[in-house]
Amino acid sequence: MQADRLILLGTKGGPAVRPGGPMPTASLLWLGGRPIVVDCGLGVTRAAVNAGLDLRQLSLIFITHLHSDHVLELGGLIHTAWTTGLTQRLRVFGPEGTRSLWTGFMTSLAFDCDIRVRDEGRIPLPDLVEITEYGPGRIFDDGDLQVSALQVEHPPVDACFALRFDRGTCVVFSADTRFFPPLAEFARGADVLVHEALLPAGVDALVARSNGGDKLRKHITASHSTAAEAGRIASMADVGRLVLHHLVPADDPGFGPLDWQAAVRQSWQGALDIGHDGMVIALPQG
């Protein structure tokens, strides 16, 4: 059985991709030998395969919200798993709108999917994929694994959810959120809190590189948590380890791990990881 672990497949906040830089948000969680993908930013398929995932094993995907840096490769991951030989049911849990996203993808790939069923004898892909749109509360429970959702504040997106995975070991993903104290209670006692993080000093340069303006700057600062605020949530929740994820900025050479550490140590003195693509974090055995 695979040891319980968390693999950060993509750690960059935002959809832009730059030469040599990290990829947008995606994670692979192994719990009790079961692979679980959390968010599907661009590059998730290659990163998951490089991390050792046999795509034919894929059975659970969870989406926190529908910003493109979290869902752009959802359809691509599923389709590639199918062409790799997936024959088991694949369950996708996402907020309202996820079913429309999947339907649109299937419409765009109708020619390819239809001809592979006729020409290669594959099971029709819609027969394998089950989409569940969720809200706050318990969203999955098979007796072994429980998954719960908390609606967080990521304006102007209403349907954005932190996710808590409990299987003896507990891992919580903040999703994208501004500083949101109820998240601390939701994450109470978690072994690992995976929290988004922003360095305010890097915002102006990021906006300039993205050809943005005041509206983009206001969105970033109003909708995301600083590294120090992520540390505050970790301290309030008394978690075992804080992992900074969805870093903004993630690909600015003017900022490195020491800058992130200095920011988060204002509020958190416990175990800390500054996320990077491919990082593997061992989890306690539940």
Q: Count the beta strands.
A: 14
Tell me, briefly, the overall form: globular
The CATH architecture classification is 4-Layer Sandwich
Q: Compute the gyration radius: what is it?
A: 18 Å
Q: What amount of the residues lies in strands?
A: 25-35%
The biggest sheet, with number of strands, parallel, antiparallel or mixed sense and barrel status, is: 7 strands, mixed
What count of domains describes the coordinates? 1
CATH superfamily: Ribonuclease Z/Hydroxyacylglutathione hydrolase-like
Identify the CATH class.
Alpha Beta
Helix and strand pattern: EEEHEHHEHHHEEEEEHEHHHEHEE
Write the layout of secondary structure elements.
Layout lengths: L4 E6 L15 E6 L2 E7 L3 H7 L9 E3 L5 H4 L2 H11 L5 E5 L3 H11 L1 H11 L4 H4 E5 L3 E5 L4 E6 L9 E7 L1 E5 L8 H5 L5 E7 L4 H7 L4 H10 L3 H11 L3 E8 L8 H8 L6 E4 L5 E3 L4
Parallel strand pairs: 3-4, 4-5, 5-6, 10-11, 11-12, 12-13
Antiparallel strand pairs: 1-2, 1-14, 2-3, 7-8, 8-9, 9-10
Give a quick rundown of the structure.
By secondary structure, the protein is α/β, with parallel strands linked by helices.
Task: Tell me what the structure shows.
The protein is of the alpha/beta class. It has one domain (5-282): 4-Layer Sandwich (Metallo-beta-lactamase, Chain A), CATH 3.60.15.10. The protein has 11 helices and 14 strands. It has helices at 44-50, 68-71, 74-84, 98-108, 110-120, 125-128, 182-186, 203-209, 214-223, 227-237, 257-264, and strands at 5-10, 26-31, 34-40, 60-62, 90-94, 129-133, 137-141, 146-151, 161-167, 169-173, 192-198, 241-248, 271-274, 280-282. The strands form 2 sheets. A 7-stranded mixed sheet has the order 6-5-4-3-2-1-14. A 7-stranded mixed sheet has the order 7-8-9-10-11-12-13, with helices on one face. Helix 1 (44-50) links the parallel strand 3 and strand 4 (60-62). It is globular. The model has no long low-confidence stretch (mean pLDDT 94).
